[in-house]
Every structure is written in C-alpha cells, then in structure tokens.
Amino acid sequence: MADVKFENVTKAYGENIILKNISLEIKDGEFCVIVGPSGCGKTTLLRMLAGLEEITYGKIYIDSVLVNDLPPSKREIAMVFQDYALYPHMSVRENMSFALKLRKVKKEEINSRVIEAASILQITHLLDRMPKQLSGGQRQRVAIGRAIVRHPKVFLFDEPLSNLDAKLREEMRIEFLKLYQKLAATMIYVTHDQIEAMTLASKIIIMNKGIIQQIGTPIDVYLKPKKLFVASFIGTPTMNFINGKLSIDREKIFLIHEDKKIFIPAFAFPDYQKYEGKEIILGIRPDDIILDESKMDKENAISAKVDVVELLGPRENIYIKISDKKIITATSHSFKITPQSEIKFSLNYLNLHIFDSVTEERIN
Amino acid sequence: MKKISVKHILIHIIILIAVVITTYPLIRIFSVSIRPGDRIISTDLSLIPDGASFISYIKLFKETHFIKWIFNSLLITLATSFIGVTLASTAAYAFSRFNFLGKKSGLSLLLLTQMIPAGMLILPLYLMIMKLNLINTYLGMIIAYSVSSLPFSIWILKGYYDTIPKSLEEAAKVDGANDISAFYKIILPLSTPALSIAFLFNFTTAWNEYLVARVVLYHPANYTWTLGLFELQGQFITQWGMFAAGSIIITIPVLVIFLYSSKWLISGLTLGSVKG
User: Which residues of chain A neighbour B177 with C-beta distances below 8 Å?
Assistant: First the structure.
C-alpha cells in the first residue's frame, strides 16, 4: 500500500498535448476513480503511472519514490487491463503465478497465494482451465486474481468492466467494492462510466480534454460541481441548463430566458450583483424540479408544455419545454401528466447550480 | 442419409484430379526405382513392374556417397532453418513493435529482395562467399541460404506479431518481465503457427536448393543431395534407377517435418479463433 503523487505531469505526442499539468495526490488506501469521456487522457495518465507510457514532463511518485525512470516491473504496481490481457497459452493458475515466478518466489508461497486469491474471487474450480475456456466475467476475475497475488503497492484498473454486459457489470461493481473493503489497498480505477465512478470511488477525479476538472468525494462532485463540464457529466438523467441574462427587478433576481422569467432567491446566489445584466447558465438537476403543487413555489412557478412522458417503473422522466428549451424532470410520483398538456413547475432553490457563461466556472 | 449434392460431387472431382496430378509423378518415380536394371527405359506403364526389386536403393547406399549427401543436406538445412527462424523472429519483432528510423523503407526493401529472381543472385552470392573465404564450406552455404529466405520469414512473422495484442506484453512487463523475457515467455509461445510456417519455408527452400549449391560446393564430399543425385547423370549413361530411388528417399525428411509441424499449425489456429 502506498501514496501516489503526480506533480505537474504533462504528456505530449509531438505538438499534440494529451495531458496538461496534472497534479494530484492519492492517499494510501484510497479508491480513486478517474472518470471522463473517451479521449480525455485518463487511460494515458494510468499508463504513465504504470510505466507503459513515457512522461513528457513532470514527476510521478509512488510511496515517495520518484518512479519516472523505473521500468513497470520495478514499480510494485499491478494492473488489470481493459481486454484482461490473460496469457492465452497459460492456464489460470499459470497466469496468476507468472509474476511470482518471475520474482523467484518459493513454490509453496506461490501456491498458497494463488489459492488465497482464487478463493477470494471464487475461481478455485477454474484454476486448471485455459483462458479460452472461460466466460467474460470469469476472465475478468482471473485478471483481478493475477493482480491480487502480487500484493502490490497500488492496484491499477483500466476500464475493467467495459467489456461486460450490463448485468454482469453491476455484479462485478459490487465485487470490486467488496474486494476494496477486504484488501484496503490503494486502488486507481479508470472508467468512462459515471455510475461506476459514483458507486466505487472514495475519491473521484473528473477529467476532460487532458485537464482535471474536479477532485472530490462522489457526493461533493454531485452536489457542488465546480465546472459546467462536471455538472453535465455527473448524474443521470443529466443536469438541465438554462442560459440567460441576470436581471434584478424590485430586489428580486431573475434569469431571463427568452420570454420566461426564472426566479433565483438571493441566498442561492450571494454574488448576484456582480453578474447583473450578464449571461449566466443556471443548472438544475431533474430531481430538483418540483411538479407537486403542494410543494411548489406558486408565486414564481414557470409554465411549460409537456413533450414526452417516459415511464421507468417506480420513476417517471417527464420531458418539458419552456420556450423551445427542452428540460428533463425526474419524479417518483405519477402526476398523471399527459403529453402536450400545460403544466407549472418551480425549482428546488437549495440545489441551484449557477455558472459563468464565459469561464464555465461555478459562481454560487 | 445425407443428400449428396451436385456441388459436392463437383468439388470431389476437382480434388481427385488435383490429387492424381500431384501424386502420379511420385508414383511413377517409385515404380522406376523398383524396376530391374535392364528395363529402366521401358515404356511399360504398370506401377509395379515384373521382377520389381529394391536393388537400386541398396546400390544407392552402397555405391555412392548418398548417406554423406543426405547428412550434408540435413546439416545445412537444419542450421539454415534454425538460424533463419531465430533471426527472423527477433527482426520481425522489432519491425512489429518498435518505431525506428527506416522502419518502413526497411520493410519495403526486404520485400523488394523477394522480387529478384534467384538466378540473378548467384553471381553476387558467389562473390561474397568467395571474399569471405567460405567457398566449399557448410558455413558458406548456411549463410547464403539464411539470408535469402530471411526477408520472407520476417514478413510472415511480422504479420503474425501484429495480430497479438500489445496489452499481453504490457501485462507481462507490469508482472515483472523485461523486454526480452516478455518476448520469449509470451510472444514466442503464442507465435508457434507463424514460426512453424517460417521454419517449413526455410527448410523446404534450403533442402531443395540446387543453383547456389552448384557454385559454392565443388568437393563431392561436401555435396548436398541435389548435387549428389546429379552426379548419377553421366555423359553416356544415367543411372535412372538409383536416381529415382534417391528422389523417393529425399522426400521423407520433408514429409516428416510437415507431419510434425502440422500439429503446431492447427493448435495455433484454434488459439487465435477464440481470442477476445
């Protein structure tokens, strides 16, 4: 187990800069998930830590040791690859003991470690099979087993669940959580799936275009996204954004979006005076749109037209339109709303997210 | 019962014709090899002639240096194949995995050498081997054969390595292997089908080669079987019986190698089919 530290790490292929000045610290025993859309540089970051990719500029430390010039074999890390990368010509047992054999660990020790890892992952009965005889989920477990037997300082996972079907992915997610609780090791997990990130991470790092957008706990980034990108990336259904000019009318703050006036209480936007007359973006999560008349702020309710109603069993997603702007609302009640009907809604003022339309930074 | 379609019958007829065309000469040669000496040039078409005997085989071993020729051929061929495959497997790995100056042009040049007819290479090869003072030696032959089959082997192996996911080597490196151990513990065992093909190619080319041997070897004790059999052709008389017997015997090593390596070829094919 160990700390991991990135110091101003940059990666460039010629003129093309993939990662810009990445600095971050991952503490001993943290489950850190790096999440972002494909091409954001998250896998490159992981591969640089593993030693599979050269560092153009900056420093990487594992357990306070500078590892920039260490080969992967000397970094005491274990990695689970997206395509599992099981050695096809070796049995499960051989796959799992390969690293230990290279390190000249004693035979009895290898055996006991393989058995231990196999029993944690419930693959003891598969030890003598070849990778081609395994299902996707089983291969995944073997790949994890290969990492566990090493007792590495840091576990690296590169989109380990992306090749599995939805149901298996859900199961394996729980397995990962259990594994983390059992091993209590430093784990760094790369994914493009924000649900995986939210459910697994103790620390979440959101990246876009080679830049870290936000670092925090899952609940932090959900409740207080610092940037427009983070707000749009985290949460399903995605956050609604309404842009418009801020205007103050008889000491009341409004966002003017075409012909609609959306009320923003002063407590939700303390800095409002600086932005009077300027373009801002108001973000509101689908869950924070109130359709229930008994809970609604009737005085400031906004009228809208229902576009589509999507039934999801216990929940309903209702797509509404205010002056051609599509907005998704999510509700757990059925209000018997029908498409094309006129409704009114108000916002949950406690959870408003306001962004500068130029810098796209959070301003409330 | 399974229905036999016209398509099936046609396919079988074509296969049958192909089999006859390929095996008929071999059968003819065999029948010549067991003919009694006085009927060698007879126009008799029976496969097993009257008075058939293995006398030609016995004479071949007793009256000529046939065993020595076979030994020479085997030595040169095996050495060529091993050296060729060893060099090609490493060179192809470099071409497949690393980026270096001249990678593309190097590959094209290798391909270009395969377009030059073998006859054109005889003089330069002879001059090179002579300058190296290796005329009439096994080593001279081994060098000449290895370099001429190397480009093809490199292309075959490079193509195969390209299909092996890089993540396997990366996993090995993370597991504690270095470049070299990742290559021979992971890549080489996975490449047996391509290695077998390269080996077979090297083996059959060197085994059957005549032209280069003709100019490099001049001492009968160093002859390969191709030169040796030609010795049987005299100015006034050719000993066709022994010639045919020799021709039959020299097919055996190639046959054995093919049968043996087919196991590797097939195991490799099934391995690839379930990847992913």
Answer: 73, 102
